[in-house]
């Protein structure tokens, strides 16, 4: 889970025989061009576009924008600019029914940050509805063993939302009870999980990928929120009043207790961490993107995007 | 979780200012005696007593008896007799409001079995109700890396039952995706979890111990069953029609795919397994018994029982 791709569709996705092309929206004017100046322009646009978080509700967008801004502000001295090509920072399928934005910033070699990754994806569904996924993840490098940060919201209708919010551990917690105590018990992360659990519309969510279930922590918030009775308004209320403050709190814990890089490690352990981090990154790309990307965007775009992500992850 | 004590009360136990002594039941006639012949007698009684599984409903008892019998029959050639002292095979508190039976059989050195452990506990509650816990666990030794078996039913009223049913892994599943595939994906354990999840009275259960959450597998069945509307009869029906066949199936998978000892390991890995197994045993004893035993049985009985368990686990 360390490396979270732009749209993890392990959540029992519908199959996607996408609709015939709709009238294109804001994106038609922004089709990738080839000249250098256009590239520069698109670089800037790519960054702006991530923060657009279009198509989702205002509370959902506010949540994502605030968290992305908080991470970028707090970690700015550690972060390099995004080096993804413009056509990976933003891409769409040939029929214009699926769009996505991806922004990855690697950390300076001297920092504890491996990378931060923000993304959104919008995909029109044959039913007439749409799937929207927004994510923010932040991975540390093997100079520290502290947990990573992960947030993902998967909205398949205005009244149905899957929320994944966690600090995925970077060690086997069974073998390291001290690590469990430091990062999960002492930080009282469980309280945040319990706060959300109390909302009547909230149910535990089980990822269809057993591997994904393994990489999350014992205090992971993995929930499905269904607000059919209260409609879309109720969902917006839940995101604003409950999901937002909880996500902010969890991110704050990560920034204060993990991203500082205080929990440094020796050489032997560093090698083990590196191996584990790399394995998790590869497995999650395989699970998250390998199957859904080709279906949504076709093989050419899939290769381009996955190749660019892998380049950043392996650099 | 590898080593499961006789009554894991990490499940938000009520506090136990036990009631004044009730008229003693079947146990008064069986008070431990000191002569050698009585000891022999009690040894036999201890074994019988485990299979009594008193106080619980008939379907609950049937389930436990069948599973214990299945394990003992299938693994009999591998198992040594129980060597626990009679006053550990059966014990009760001074006020006669809490009784427990514990039966542990170690495996032959040449077998893949570390031990099997069966237990029940009955404790009268101040409210007038009773807490009944029954468990069966089976641990393998480091000659194999295959998962262990674990079943525990915690009944705090006729309409409330917590079920823990799992094959706890013995390796970090994040680092060993092949192990995850062999023992959890290929065995389709997830189907059993999903079958139970469909029953309307079934809700996911989160152990209050984060460590316990870590030691279970991604297909662990951790559920709370509440049958208030249907009463005790409905609970019996759920145990008989759903819990029983699912537990039997999971035990069958364990016996066929894990207990055979086919998944053998080399010397280096054996040392790592040994370390992990030992850590899990110690931690689970600490979590499961450390806090609740003194409250239920007082310090003297606690020391005796824990000492005897540790002796078996460390032999």
From TrEMBL, chains A, B:
What is the native source organism of this protein? Liquidambar formosana (Formosan gum)
Protein name according to UniProt: red chlorophyll catabolite reductase
The UniProt catalytic activity note for this protein reads: primary fluorescent chlorophyll catabolite + 2 oxidized [2Fe-2S]-[ferredoxin] = red chlorophyll catabolite + 2 reduced [2Fe-2S]-[ferredoxin] + 3 H(+)
State the Gene Ontology BP annotations.
chlorophyll catabolic process
InterPro entries for this protein: RCC_reductase (IPR009439)
Q: Which residue positions does the secretion signal occupy?
A: none
Location in the cell? Plastid, Chloroplast
Q: Which domain of life is it from?
A: Eukaryota
């Amino acid at each position: 889970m360390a490396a979270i791709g732009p749209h993890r569709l392990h959540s029992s996705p519908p199959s996607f025989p996408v609709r015939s092309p709709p009238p294109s929206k804001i994106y038609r004017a922004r089709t990738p061009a080839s000249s250098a100046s256009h590239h520069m322009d698109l670089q800037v646009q790519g960054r702006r576009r991530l923060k657009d978080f279009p198509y989702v509700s205002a509370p959902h967008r506010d949540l994502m924008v605030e968290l992305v801004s908080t991470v970028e502000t707090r970690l700015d001295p550690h972060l390099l600019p995004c080096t993804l090509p413009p056509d990976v920072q933003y891409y769409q399928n040939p029929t214009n029914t699926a769009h996505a934005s991806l922004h990855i910033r690697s950390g300076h070699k001297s920092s504890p940050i491996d990378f931060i990754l923000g993304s959104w994806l919008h995909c029109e569904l044959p039913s007439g509805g749409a799937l929207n996924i927004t994510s923010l993840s932040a991975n540390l490098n093997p100079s520290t063993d502290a947990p990573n940060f992960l947030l993902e919201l998967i909205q398949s209708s205005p009244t149905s939302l899957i929320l994944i919010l966690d600090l995925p551990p970077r060690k086997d917690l069974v073998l390291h009870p001290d690590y469990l105590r430091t990062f999960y018990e002492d930080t009282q992360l469980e309280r945040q999980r319990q706060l959300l659990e109390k909302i009547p519309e909230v149910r535990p969510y089980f990822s269809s990928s057993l591997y994904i279930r393994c990489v999350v922590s014992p205090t992971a918030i993995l929930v499905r929120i269904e607000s059919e009775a209260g409609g879309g308004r109720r969902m917006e209320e839940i995101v604003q009043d409950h999901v937002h403050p909880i996500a902010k709190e969890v991110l704050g814990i990560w920034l204060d207790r993990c991203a500082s890089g205080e929990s440094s490690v020796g050489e032997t352990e560093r090698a083990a961490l590196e191996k584990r981090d790399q394995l998790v990154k590869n497995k999650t790309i395989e699970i998250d993107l390998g199957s859904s990307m080709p279906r949504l965007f076709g093989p050419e775009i899939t290769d381009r995007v996955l190749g660019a992500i892998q380049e950043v992850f392996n650099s």
